[in-house]
Structures
1.
Amino acid sequence: MNGFALAGSVFGLGVAGLDPFGALMVVPALAAGAKRRIVMWFFGMAALCTLLTGLVVGESVQHVSAWLARLAVPAPVRLIAQAAAAAALGAWAAVRWARRGAPKREKASVLVGPVAMALAGALWGVSAVTDPSFLALVAVDAGVESLPVSTAVFAGWFVISQAPLCLVVLALVTGKDTRPVRGAVALARRLEAPAGSAVTLLLAAGAVLLALNALSYPVAGRFWPL
């Protein structure tokens, strides 16, 4: 693949994978009092882990595919795992619902500390493997034999797909009290309550789906619909 075609593929797949959730993670952290350097930790770890994930998966994709093809999870193990996951999600949703009107505790600031944000950034970077556009990029990069070029490919995809996050970080570089940052923080604070309710509902829905899927095996002899 020539350079123009490769660049076009990176741009197209970056646009296809455009994701605002990275920004939606750091803006509430700023609203909760996170310092600028802590957000930079998140951004740096997210970018680094995205690059490393792309390079590692690109090198081992054939081996991983062959391993997954041979992997067979026994039905009883899958049943137990799904039931446990459903119970955990259901309990989490119940706790969130019970505490929906409770005042915030000061210890919650730990969640926006440097270690927590760096870990969140690392997990966010690794989670790129769940994005179909990222997996397509891995396939495109399979024909690239130069490590610097491969690094540029995944870096370009990250910048384009995480454009909202990059814009927030760029605004932070110019100062935490700039108008765009203040506006984003104010919006995050206004949306905090409905966003929390939405997360609780999603957790409950996930618990119900997993429970139904687990129950479908002893009833119908197969897992459905997942």
Note: DSSP finds nine helices and no strands in the chain.
2.
Amino acid sequence: MGGMSTSGDDLETGQGRVRPIVTVGDPVLSTPCKPVTEFGDELRQLVADMFATMYAAPGVGLAANQIGVDLAVFVIDCPDSQNDSLVGHCVNPQLEVLGDDRELELDDEGCLSIPGPYTDVPRLKRVAVTGVDWSGAPVRLEGYGRAARCLQHETDHLVGYLYVDRLPAKQRRLVLKEYEQLHAQSS
């Protein structure tokens, strides 16, 4: 299943406003997000704001806690290694490995909440995420390669993990040191 668009609402190009992105060290990034229980216009606006923020950054995915909202929601617009770009959003996502394929792919990864450094992170090559959209309708997003990496990265955010949490301690320290040096220079 290639790119999936958001139920004809064009949330990804709609009336969202750009919100500030929370950076590493903020507790909202290391706390599991709450499941969404209320659907409708307020959630639709959050998704539109998340798309606007992701595009302005620019990025290929964004989780709600990255803009300080403690809800299990992410947006994605990421190139897929086998299909067109994967575009959509998912509320209360559940990650699943497709088939028996547990092959890992090592590729560089970065994060809007740790702006600057990139490093190689092992991820599954092919995954799917199931959940619902802003209205509560079922959603299934499948990704291969880069898009699978993005789906895993965003679902990690929603359980309180950053990509650096998947790294060995020494590599994690080096990435965070690089981020701190870049941040100190720009302050």
Note: The chain is about 25% helix and 30% strand.
